[in-house]
Amino acid sequence: EEIRKLGIVVGSLQQLGFAVVLVHGAGSFGHILAKKWHLKDGRNSIVDTEQAKETSFEGVASQYEARDIVRNYMKALNGIIVEEFRGVGVELQTIPAHEVFTETGPDFQGDVSIFEKSPEEPIPITFGDVTNCAGRREFGILSGDDVVVRLSKELAGVKRLVFAVSGVDGILRKPPEEALDEDLITEFNPHSVSFVSKHDSEIDVTGGIGYKATCGYLVAKAGIPVVLVRGEVSSRVLAACKGEHVRGTVIKA
After folding, report:
1. Which pLDDT does position 54 carry in this prediction?
2. Separation between Cα atoms, residue 115 and residue 13, nearest integer Å
3. What is the 3-state secondary structure (H, E, C) of 139-178?
4. Closest CA to 44 of 133, 119, 120
């Protein structure tokens, strides 16, 4: 239902003449397996040996198998999003990151111009993925947050970057389970505001909301407005995308 609501938001933006680009994360689809098989760190035969001593996890016997399964998990999650959006009349064009990008981190390799579309075309969508890397590393995890930095800075005419995050109104001064309404940081700059970045390190392999804050700051430094809002409140997502004031966190350079 939440995905469909976001689909309605994106459809509204299209009708208003916005050319939208979507980047989604893995949720529970890819992080658990990626974490267990240390895919973020690249190829390591010791990992295969150590894991072989345990009961195989989901029938996986090697990092190579884990890499391929995580890629398929991500395509499966993306397929759900595509179908939900189609159900509200919004067509998406899936561009798996591992098919067009290599390496990891903010300096990953690949041409982002393929995401440049007109508002009348299907909306391009990609996601964090297991990408190929040169040398002994062979592969690693490319975060969707790194992808949005380059998309924001390199595509022509980008108006703003909106992070639709789950479970929180934005960046908080305290962990979500302890935070009150007044603990929302409405304006964030990493040099002047501190916060507790808490995410599920047992699952998340790409840094949680803290890394979103870091990447958002890089985009803000390029002169592009950046805001984090609660993704479950579709009205806030729409308002943020339109540049309206909304409850959330504005990242300042």
Report:
1. 59
2. 17
3. EEEECHHHHHHHHHHHCCCCCCEEEEECCCCCCECCCCCC
4. 133
Q: Rounded distance, CA 37 to CA 48, Å?
A: 8
pLDDT grade, residue 202 (50/70/90)? very low
Contact in structure between 70 and 78 (CB atoms under 8 Å): no
Rounded distance between C-alpha atoms, residue 70 and residue 127, angstroms: 12
**Rounded to whole angstroms, how far apart are CA atoms 224 and 217?**
10
Q: Give pLDDT, residue 77.
A: 95
Closest to 195 (Cα-Cα) out of 169, 168, 173: 173
Non-local (6+) Cβ contacts of 182 within 8 A are none
- What would the pLDDT profile of 117-129 be if each residue is shown by its tens digit? 999 999 999 999 9
What is the model's pTM? Answer: 0.90
Q: Which range is least confidently modeled, 46-50, 158-162, 176-180?
A: 46-50
**CA 244, 250, 251, 252 torsion: positive or negative?**
positive
